[in-house]
């Protein structure tokens, strides 16, 4: 590596932004890798691995630090806390870096950041961790199930408690484990533009790994590419990056020929584009979102694909629009949510979400539903979806909605493969669980207007 100290300084700065300044990890890390494109592949891989690994395992790392530090992690200076965290990640998970190098670099980093008086503290904690890592006693599943799940998988206890109210221990452990697994990317093939064979061939010609998706014939799982915008099949508009769970939302919406669709929280446009493809030039899709930036993002996608009956519209879903009343055959409310179903892709979500923030999100979801339900025609369908596993945002919101508005749940079994049919699908909704299903965590309900 060209300059190990600088590489670690880059990681420290990125982690500080994410953990101490509330920035989103996927944005910070993308910007860092763009900025340091000139570094060699190994150095960039080191930056990604240490940053992402530290985030994914933060609770476990803090647990280890607490065993060897006289100062609690919460009371440390932010830079010292972050140096210890990223160093302990390397000690625990990276055999390729010698312990002595991790300790020395941690101490040098503290010095470079001006903490001369804390050099001894950093050195002491790191060397104790390095010497005694094998002796750390961890919570056991039998005697301390909550602490065991929390420390082993670095999952906040409040989230686990919510899940354990609804699912058994084994299911919760599968969800937790899945957040640490490397994932392939789901893509939706646009079979009107190219056959699946052509798309697979084009991907393989670029050295990309391709796997069939178990739930939908036109979905593929791909891996081993660097940058999606450089993938030929993507540039030609043959495929969209979209998790299969999100594709299922459009499948369950099942727009008929000529349907008018309104997607009230549409950006970046995955489900809207999917609906437009399904309409095959008939009907129309209005893809709305609340910021200029996001509407532009959708416009870019519309232009790349070309020739579709869809427009991107700037509109706040919490503000009533009289012109939309009873206009939609299909209304998609893929509302903002806590995102606990996509933690495997965005490791910091689990630390940034809190019960108070979740309560605010539920209020926003209900406000959006309250406003947009009137846009559904009589006999039309409202699809309510989220990328979370929280009952408060999913099942309880649907229950609240049915108690207050003239809709009923409708079976979604006609739209699902056998593997996905289960306890609730006849009743009209589906909760996908990462680690149990081969998808993100996602919730979909099909609600039909009855008055
Ligand atoms: C879960 S994402 C939607 C993903 C999208 N449906 C797709 O499939 O690509 C939620 C979206 O809601 C948007 N949003 C948040 N508050 C909103 C509001 N008041 N009105 C409209 N859109 C809003 C966010 O900008 C975000 O793009």
Automatic annotation (TrEMBL):
Keywords: Methyltransferase, Transferase. Its EC number is 2.1.1.176. It comes from the Bacteria. It is an enzyme of class 2 (transferase). This is 16S rRNA (Cytosine(967)-C(5))-methyltransferase RsmB. It comes from Hominisplanchenecus murintestinalis. The gene is rsmB.
């Amino acid at each position: 590596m060209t300059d190990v100290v600088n590489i670690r300084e880059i990681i420290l700065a990125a982690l500080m932004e994410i953990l101490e300044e509330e920035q989103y990890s996927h944005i910070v890390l993308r910007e860092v890798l763009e900025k340091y494109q000139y570094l060699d592949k190994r150095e960039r891989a080191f930056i990604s691995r240490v940053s992402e690994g530290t985030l994914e395992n933060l609770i476990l790392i803090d647990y280890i630090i607490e065993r060897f530090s006289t100062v609690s992690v919460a009371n440390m200076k932010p830079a010292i806390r972050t140096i210890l965290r990223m160093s302990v990640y390397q000690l625990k998970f990276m055999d390729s870096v010698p312990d002595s190098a991790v300790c020395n670099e941690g101490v040098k980093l503290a010095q470079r950041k001006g903490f001369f008086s804390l050099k001894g503290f950093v050195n002491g904690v790191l060397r104790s961790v390095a010497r005694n890592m094998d002796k750390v006693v961890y919570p056991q599943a039998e005697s301390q199930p909550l602490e065991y799940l929390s420390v082993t998988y670095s999952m906040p206890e409040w989230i686990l408690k919510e899940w354990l109210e609804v699912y058994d221990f084994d299911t919760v452990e599968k969800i937790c484990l899945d957040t640490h697994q490397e994932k392939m990317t789901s893509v939706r093939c646009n079979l009107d533009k190219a056959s699946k064979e052509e798309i697979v061939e084009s991907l393989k010609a670029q050295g990309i790994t391709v796997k069939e998706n178990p739930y939908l014939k036109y979905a593929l799982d791909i891996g081993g590419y660097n940058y999606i915008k450089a993938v030929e099949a993507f540039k030609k508009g043959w495929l969209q990056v979209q998790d299969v769970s999100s594709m299922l939302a459009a499948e369950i919406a099942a727009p008929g020929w000529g349907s008018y669709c309104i997607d009230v929280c549409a950006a970046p446009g995955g489900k809207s584009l999917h609906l437009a493809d399904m309409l095959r030039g008939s009907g129309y899709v209005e893809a709305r979102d609340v910021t200029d930036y996001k509407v532009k993002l959708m416009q870019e996608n519309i232009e790349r694909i070309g020739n579709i009956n869809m427009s991107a519209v700037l509109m706040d879903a919490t503000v009533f629009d009289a012109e939309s009343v009873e206009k939609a055959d299909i209304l998609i409310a893929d509302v903002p949510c806590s995102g606990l179903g996509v933690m495997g892709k965005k490791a910091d979500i689990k630390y940034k979400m809190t019960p108070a923030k979740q309560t605010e999100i539920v209020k926003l979801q209900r406000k959006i539903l309250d406003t947009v339900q009137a846009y559904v025609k009589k006999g039309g369908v409202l699809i309510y979806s989220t990328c979370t596993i929280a009952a408060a945002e999913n099942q309880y919101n649907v229950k609240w909605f049915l108690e207050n508005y003239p809709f009923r749940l409708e079976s979604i079994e006609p739209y699902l493969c056998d593997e996905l049919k289960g306890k609730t699908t006849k009743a009209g909704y589906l909760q996908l669980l990462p680690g149990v299903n081969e998808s993100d965590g996602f919730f979909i309900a099909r609600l039909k207007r009855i008055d």
